[in-house]
Amino acid sequence: MDSVDRKRIHGPDKSVLPLPLLDSQHESVTSKTTLNPSARFDGRTHEEVRPLFARTAMVSQANGSAYIEVGCIKIICAVYGPKQITTKSKSGDHHSGGRISCDVRLAPFAGLKRKGYMKDTNEHSLAKNLATALTPSLLLAHLPKSQIDIHIQILQATAGHVSASSTSSATVLPPPSFATNLSLLLSPCITVASLALADAGIEMMDSVVGCSVGLFRRTDKNSLFWMVDPSEEERETRALGGGVWVGNAVVGVMPSVGRISGLVVDGDVGDVGVLMEAVNVCVDACAKVHDVVVKKALVDGFHAASSPVSGSSSAV
Amino acid sequence: MAVSVCEREFTLTGVASNIRSDGRGRSDVRAAAVESGGISQASGSCRVSSAGGTTVLVGIKVAVGAPAVTASTAADADLDADIAVDNSEDAELSISDADLRRGRVVCAIDCNPAIIPTMDPRAVEDLCIDFSEVITKILNADHGGLDLQSLCIVPGSTCWVIHVDALVLGYGGNLLDTLFQATRGALHDTLIPKVTVEESTSASTGNTSYEFDVADDETEDLKGCENIPVIVTLFKIGHHHVIDPTPLEEACSDVQLSVAINRKGLPCAIQKTGNGSIEPSQLAEMIQDAKAHGATLFKDMDEAIERQRVRSLNDTK
Amino acid sequence: MDTEMGEAEHAMLHFVTPGETVTADTVFMRGHGTYNDGEELVATVAGVVERINKLISVKPLRARFSGEIGDVVVGRISEVTQKRWRVNMGARQDAALLLAAVNLPGGELRRRSESDELQMRQLLSEGDMISAEIQGFFQDGSASLHTRSLKYGKLRSGSLVTVPSSLVKRSKAHFLHYTLSPGLHVDVILGMNGFVWVSKGSKDANKKGDVPNSTQEDADALYANVNEPITNEERMAIARVSNCILAIAKESELITEAFILLVHEASLRIDCKDIVANSKQIIDAAKMSY
């Protein structure tokens, strides 16, 4: 008591959010989802993806670039190349065609806490999975002795707010689980990188679109259901109105040829049938995203480049 | 690895005919010898040597450290600052508390580039980092089988950290599966010193403080080892896929699918690597095959572990 | 020196270690693996002393392949550089295969032009397997190969097996042909460097040797990248012979034409994929049937 500072006005030691208002809102939504798991927090069906904003030619110095916004995630991608390969590899450069190198960085202000500049395992994993998803679409055999550098900068990775509550149905921060970070960020990374590559005029077999799907288990029936493109709230709320998050799948799809170029699945997904169903829905969702967003962004970018007045960006 | 066009075609047609260069079928694996407990200084160890030449040695060291989420980091994140362990709330523990009570696993893989002469030294290092991440990710997740809650010493500040260090001693293909097999064997072999924790609640402030003591001689098994999944990596060569490939077959494969299968025979983690792409129908087929192989692998490993247990019991007599 | 040693001969072997005096007699000339320390001949490697007339050398127990002129080797192209290919044959250095030392499509006596140099990759590119003969050595000790005869060149329709080079002894026949059963032929090229190529056999038992007037078609076919069609039976036979050779190597026995056939016979009762695991049994059975 002696150490109390009398010059300043202290707030209460323990502060809580005005819960009654928030909780009742939440309760109505959660009760809705208990009855009908297909109705989600933002009113989407379980097959719908969130609205995406995409625009090309954001970085003037780069050969190609793109920017994407989905939910609270903001990612910018710059592509440099094809240019002379900088490192010699043992096996001989000519017959392995070109090479891509992906670099993913989270800005220090991207998350809730400031993150230093040291690369961590998340970024390394994201980069590796991104490269895996993009390589099948590129015609690297046409680019011997060349390399393409893809730089991804994640400007914002979370909504930045936490609706804390001291009651048992807590909505809390995602646990420091690697899987959560990855799936949240990998799918838009794939989409924006592919868009940037197309903007750079690099020859590709097809664009690649990324999509994620969350798998939930109904606590009462112990059966699985999936929801495409889970938002941060849905992922964080492990007890999602009658369902518990068990895992997620991130799929990179080449929509025109219908092939999967990237796949990361985490969690006790259980039934392979349900997983394959979810993956197939992702494939369809990616086709839609490609037709509506990706194509439009490229076309708009083209028009913007050819007309003197800066063109409109494509927003869905 | 540089491969001639003729060898690639020979491998592709061989896989398609189900007769590989060494006479195996697509689903046949090479025999592997599993030995545990060879390293007395380690908390647990295991060596797996495959007939094809891939040899991996895993040593485990357990150390007292901080969990991934500590009380201070949780407080920063706008949650309740007092992580008071109130017994009445036990039944309704919020998830944040559970995370404060988790131990963690850190895996590091080391491979001398000279062991894989056909790969660039930097590519070998990258490979080691990638595999380390895969194994760390699986073992730290809920589906990793280990009872990480039992590794908690003081919630929010202290826990057991299991350091898994793997050494690659020889390479003959199929490195990830062998690494995980050896890791699993080493974790089975691991003994954790017993810890006594004393709780004391200060009467004036109402705060709980903890003191813990690590026993010198008493140890206990690591809980949850039986539930650690196995990893089966399928290598797509042409239109078919094989398991346990030779280095030449790995070089001819365009898509690799690593599937972690749990004891129930269900996949709990899947990752696609490689420069190619697959159709959803092929994906379904590959996952089903992985499930079948996973079941066989579990059986073999359980037998190996049982043999090891009997052997070490006889040794101590 | 090609035959297996009996017990008595084994006892007469003179093992030396580095630094050990081999002989103090000055009448001997020094060969590989020794150096002169004043009057004495001292060994530089751990191995067996070999004496041929007045030449004393020490042959190491195990060493990377070094080779001699005339050796048949199997190697993999590792690099394509100006006017030559670099060939990895498991020796201390990669060997060089000069453009001037290969047969070019279009006839024997064709002059090498500039376009040939630029199109070297059309003939042999990185990763290709070849059989060749050591023509000579450069100053730095790397070998120079040639594929001047039609029996050498790009290898197809088969797979590579690697064994320790000390198990392959110099002999008349390095290009082996086995007729395992009517219509089932397997060819084996025993490289002195321990690289062995096992492939589908040609129908006739007589290999095409040096043919003075090679036809245009023969020459063009030299560098084709197309395997011959292989039936399942042939594929299994290739796998079986490969595994037999690996089994022989595992038991550290010399790999010879006759022994491979004996081991193959002995292996027939075991599944192809289990041959290497049961190598001891099979080799013992083969030795008994000598």
From TrEMBL, chain A:
Residues 1-40 are annotated as: Disordered. It comes from the Eukaryota. Residues 27-37 have a biased composition (Polar residues). GO terms for biological process: nuclear mRNA surveillance; poly(A)-dependent snoRNA 3'-end processing; rRNA catabolic process; rRNA processing; U4 snRNA 3'-end processing. Residues 1-13 have a biased composition (Basic and acidic residues). CDD domains: RNase_PH_MTR3. Residues 48-203 form the Exoribonuclease phosphorolytic domain. It is found in: Cytoplasm; Nucleus. InterPro entries: ExoRNase_PH_dom1 (IPR001247), ExoRNase_PH_dom2_sf (IPR036345), PNPase/RNase_PH_dom_sf (IPR027408), Ribosomal_Su5_D2-typ_SF (IPR020568), RNase_PH (IPR050080). Keywords: Cytoplasm, Exosome, Nucleus, RNA-binding, rRNA processing. GO terms for cellular component: cytoplasmic exosome (RNase complex); nuclear exosome (RNase complex); nucleolus. GO terms for molecular function: RNA binding. Pfam families: RNase_PH (PF01138). Belongs to the RNase PH family. This is Exoribonuclease phosphorolytic domain-containing protein. It comes from Chytriomyces confervae.
TrEMBL record, chain B:
It comes from Chytriomyces confervae. InterPro entries: ExoRNase_PH_dom1 (IPR001247), ExoRNase_PH_dom2 (IPR015847), ExoRNase_PH_dom2_sf (IPR036345), Exosome_comp_Rrp42_subfam (IPR050590), PNPase/RNase_PH_dom_sf (IPR027408), Ribosomal_Su5_D2-typ_SF (IPR020568). Residues 29-193, 227-289 form the Exoribonuclease phosphorolytic domain. One of its GO terms (cellular component) is cytoplasmic exosome (RNase complex). Its main location: cytoplasm. GO terms for molecular function: mRNA 3'-UTR AU-rich region binding. Belongs to the RNase PH family. GO terms for biological process: exonucleolytic trimming to generate mature 3'-end of 5.8S rRNA from tricistronic rRNA transcript (SSU-rRNA, 5.8S rRNA, LSU-rRNA); nuclear mRNA surveillance; nuclear polyadenylation-dependent rRNA catabolic process; rRNA catabolic process; TRAMP-dependent tRNA surveillance pathway; U1 snRNA 3'-end processing; U4 snRNA 3'-end processing; U5 snRNA 3'-end processing. The keyword Cytoplasm applies. It is found in: Cytoplasm; Nucleus, Nucleolus. This is Ribosomal RNA-processing protein 42. It comes from the Eukaryota. The keyword Cytoplasm applies. Keywords: Cytoplasm, Exosome.
Automatic annotation (TrEMBL), chain C:
Residues 15-51 form the Exosome complex component N-terminal domain. It is found in: Nucleus. Residues 158-203 form the K Homology domain. The keyword Transport does not apply. GO terms for biological process: CUT catabolic process; exonucleolytic trimming to generate mature 3'-end of 5.8S rRNA from tricistronic rRNA transcript (SSU-rRNA, 5.8S rRNA, LSU-rRNA); nuclear mRNA surveillance; nuclear polyadenylation-dependent rRNA catabolic process; poly(A)-dependent snoRNA 3'-end processing; TRAMP-dependent tRNA surveillance pathway; U4 snRNA 3'-end processing. InterPro entries: Exosome_cplx_N_dom (IPR025721), Exosome_RNA_bind1/RRP40/RRP4 (IPR026699), KH_dom_type_1 (IPR004088), KH_dom_type_1_sf (IPR036612), NA-bd_OB-fold (IPR012340), S1_RRP4 (IPR048565). One of its GO terms (molecular function) is RNA binding. Residues 64-135 form the RRP4 S1 domain. The keyword rRNA processing applies. Keywords: Exosome, Nucleus, RNA-binding, rRNA processing. One of its GO terms (cellular component) is nuclear exosome (RNase complex). It comes from the Eukaryota. PANTHER family: EXOSOME COMPLEX COMPONENT RRP4, PNAS-3 RELATED. Belongs to the RRP4 family. This is Uncharacterized protein. It comes from Chytriomyces confervae.
